[in-house]
Amino acid sequence: MLTIAPDIEVLARFGRALADPIRCQLLLALREAPAYPSDLADTLDISRTRLSNHLACLRDCGLVVTVPDGRRTRYELADERLGHALDDLRTAVIAVETDRTCVDAEGEGCC
């Protein structure tokens, strides 16, 4: 059953997905066009096993969906607005102080 997540959960899921560079690359690739896992693995130059784990994470976070295509499965963004959100995030200006480290609530470095 598909449900709409509350705002905070949506942001947390998006944040978890963006916390890994490979998942960021996957989301940016899928922003351009839907793709098959084999093509994504080649594009990102990673093993299919590693790719599968990252795609599962993105699926579990609700950011990508699978679309059956004959005997193959294609991946695409769950909502076209995610592509716009990625564009906005990519072009956002952030204030980074070189003597500071991004720290999470537990005091561990997050960046």
TrEMBL record:
NCBIfam families: HTH_metalloreg. InterPro entries: ArsR-like_HTH, HTH_ArsR_DNA-bd_dom, HTH_Metal-responsive_Reg, WH-like_DNA-bd_sf, WH_DNA-bd_sf. Residues 3-100 form the HTH arsR-type domain. It comes from the Bacteria. This is Metalloregulator ArsR/SmtB family transcription factor. Pfam families: HTH_5.
